[in-house]
Specification:
Layout (H helix, E strand, L loop, with lengths): L31 H12 L1 H16 L4 H23 L8 H9 L1 H38 L5 H17 L2 H29 L20 H10 L17 H31 L4 H7 L1 H13 L1 H35 L18 H21 L3 H33 L7 H24 L1 H4 L3 H28 L1 H5 L7
Length: about 500
Amino acid sequence: MSNDQSGSVGSPSHVTSAPMVDHSALHRGLGVPSIVAMVVAGAAPLAVVSLTVPIVITLGGSIAAPLLFVIAGVLLVLFSVGFTSMARHVRNSGAFYSYIQAGLGRFTGLGAATTALVSYFLLQVGLYAYVGISAAGAMDRFFSIDTPWWIWALVAFAIVSLLGYRDIELSSKVLIVALLAETSAVLILDGAIFFTGGADGWSAEPFSPSLLSSGSPSLGLMFALFSFIGFEATAVFRNEARDPDKTIPRATYVAVISVAALYAISAFALVLGAGPDKALDVATTDPASMTPNLYLEYTGAVINDLTTLLLISSTFACTLTFHNVLTRYQYTLGSLKVLPTKLATVHPQHSAPSFSSLVVTIISGAMLVAMMLVGLDPVLEIYTWFSGAATLGLLTLMALTSVAVIAFFRTHSGEKNVLSTIIAPAVAAVGLVSVVVIGLMNIELLIPSPGATATLLTILVTSFVIGIIVAARMKRTDPVAFEHLHDQES
């Protein structure tokens, strides 16, 4: 058991082994492809190429978006080096909070746990709103039928809730199909642009390091990193993976590298498609129309219409992924008695934490209905505000995780690899902290409303404090459970 500098109760003689949850009842069939499909679907590649890449170009102030995605990918590979090194030692599916707890102590760890839960719930509700408005827009475009966005949000909510309640293998199959469809749509556009050579022919200028001296590359990098949110969920599926000590690290690297490659190649294609000399002006003038217009120009009306539908399925797949992530977070916290142990029960037929899934359904449903009743705009307010706050919270947890890796291996002398235990996580920590600071300095780009900014940042900070309070209460009222928070650390 590792040292806990911030709240260990030591190992007094009266402390006996706490009953631990038997995870063997869970489905254990997930391999690398299934886990990669779930976490890459969480990153929503088609949505990123359609919505985020033009924003990276606009805010970066140059055509360096392809290079910025490469830099973001390298930074997250370095993060993954420490992340996967910890996966061999921390044997539960709590991901961020488990690693932060192992390195920085139980109080900080449980603060991270509650912050992660709040961040993922905010992201989940924001995604429901985006699915709803996208589906309503498609109905109006293709059938001239005006429908409220919340009807489609509730339809998506019902389907996600049903799939999340059942065997994880069912969700993985749905996500694999959705991911293949949206990735194919992205690659069709890339191929069409590359085949024609784009507007002005081939050019390597978008990868030129000299572009980093102009514009605002730090802002572009911030949004490029935001596009990767979701890949960290590989470790959340540890308890349902085949041979998790091998599956989780492999899935993490495959997810990060494949997503980085797809984003960089697609950003390059968009710049070539619009023309290196015109891409910045095109993106700045109307970022939301840049990718659809390129689809129309290079692939025709049929493919353009198809991508409209696939954008809905892309966001839906993202929503399903985070429902499953939340379910596993709660399951793990229930198994450690941080949350009610009922959350750690496994459905005998579905071999899944179905009760935890039901709780996620109730909480996210209540949040969604509340936002509907308040009358918030589904994109400009619910999606923009909630996803912005959630992303900032999750990037902060990633930075803390990198710091925790260094702290953890300082007390585990068995690890001799300086690159994976010090250098890589240190570089990742510096990069991620810098992005968080940039995000806070430019918070109006993430959450345009000052009132919403103050409210959501207060919620994130309060969630961390609540986690610390929960840890203090556990230490006082249930020292055995508190001590065994580190039990799954070897």
